Amino acid sequence: MARGCRGRLGSNLQRPVSFRSAIAVLAVLAVVGLLTFGLLSKGSSGVALGEVAPDGPLPQLEGGGSGSLADYRGRWVLVNFWASWCVPCRQEAPELEEFQRQHGGPRFTVLGIDSRDLTDDGRKFVRDYGLSYPQLRDGNGDTAHAFGTTGVPENFLIGPDGKVRLLLRGPVDAEYLERYVAPQLPGGRS
Amino acid sequence: MRPRAGLGARLSAVVLALVSVAALAAPPALAAQPQASQTQIEAEVMCPVCGTLLQLAESPQAQREKAFVRRLIREGRTEQQIKDVLVAEYGEAVLALPKGKGFNLSAYLVPAIAFAIALVALGFGVARWRRAGDHRDDGDSQPPSQGPSPEDSERLDADLARYDL
C-alpha cells in the first residue's frame, strides 16, 4: 500500500518536471539547430592558389543561354569579376580588352563575370568599352561568393586543369598583366 | 434646319455626357491597382552589395538600384511587379522579408511557434498559480489563531519563571 502510494506520488512529482525539461531542451536544441543550419547553408567560400575554381553554370550577359568556367577547361582563363557601377572596373576594362586582343585565342581567354549588377547596365558597360571577350552574369553574387571575392574587381587566372594559378583582389593594369599573367600562358616567358 | 441643329446639339451633349461618365469611372479602375511607392519599396528590399536595406544604402550599386526602381515606378509597374523584377536581377536575397518557402519559412514559423509555446506555458503557469491560491484559501477557511488563551499564557509565564536565573 505504502509502496504503491509512494510510487504514485513519485510519478506525479517526477513526470511533469522531466516533461518540462524535455520540452525546454528540445526548444533550445531546435533553436541551436536552426542557427547552425542557417550558418552552414551559407557555406564556407573562397578559393586558394592551387585549388579547383568553382565552375557552376551562369547565364550569358548578352543573348540567351548559359555558360560556365568548365566550358573553357583545357584553356587558360583570366576570370574577371566586375560591375558597371564599380569605378576601378572602368579603369581596367580597356586594359583587359587590349590583353585579350594580344593573347586571346584557342589557348587563352579573358572571361568577364558581371556580378551583382543590373543586366542593362552590364550590357551598356560592355558596349561602351567594346569588350570582345565572353561575359557571364552573376546577378545574385553566388559565384563571386564561391570564389571568395570581397568586392569588385577581382581577377583569377585559372589553368587548363581548372585550378587557380594566380589571384589578384583588385584591379589589374597592363603592367601587371604583362608581368604576371603573360609569362604563365603558353608561349609566355615564365 | 433649326430642328436638325437642335438634334445635333442634343447628340453632342449625350456623347459628351457618356465620355464624362467614362472618364469618371476610369479613376476607380486605376486606383484598384496599388500605386508603387519609392519609399515603401526601398524599405522592403536590400542593397545586395551593402547587405543593408536599400533606403539606408548610399553605395554606387544602391544608387543604380534606386534609379532602376524609380524607372520601373515611372513605367507604372506595381510594387509586386517591381519586386519580381528585382528578384530576377539580384536573386531572392534582394528581398528584406524572405518568401515563405523552404528554410526561409522558419523566419515566420519559429516566432509563431515560440509565441504559441510561451502562451501555453503562461496558461499552465496561471492555472497552477490559481490552484495554489485555492489551496491557500482552503487553509484560510479556519479562523485565524488569536494567540494563546489566558490560561496558556499564565502557564507559559510560570514555566519561564522557573528557568529565570
* Structural Rg of chain B: 39 Å
The level of helicity of chain B is 55-70%
Level-2 CATH architecture of the largest domain in chain A: 3-Layer(aba) Sandwich
CATH class identity of the largest domain in chain A: Alpha Beta
Give the tally of structural domains of chain B: 3
Biggest interface in this structure? A-B, 21 and 20 residues
In whole angstroms, how far apart are the ends of chain A? Answer: 95 Å
The residue-averaged pLDDT of chain B reads 81
| Shape type of chain B | elongated
Order of helices and strands of chain B: HHEEHHHH
Report the biggest beta sheet of chain A as strand number plus sense, adding barrel if it closes.
Answer: 5 strands, mixed
Beta-strand percentage of chain A? 15-25%
Strand order of the largest sheet of chain A: 5-4-3-6-7
Which structural class is indicated by helix and strand composition of chain A? Answer: alpha/beta
C-alpha Rg of chain A, in Å? 27 Å
Topology:
The complex is a heterodimer of chains A (190) and B (165).
Chain A: H1 2-42, E1 58-59, E2 66-67, E3 76-82, H2 87-103, E4 108-115, H3 119-128, E5 135-138, H4 142-147, E6 154-158, E7 164-168, H5 174-181
Parallel strand pairs in A: 3-4, 4-5
Antiparallel strand pairs in A: 1-2, 3-6, 6-7
Chain B: H1 2-31, H2 38-44, E1 46-47, E2 52-53, H3 60-74, H4 79-90, H5 106-140, H6 150-162
Antiparallel strand pairs in B: 1-2
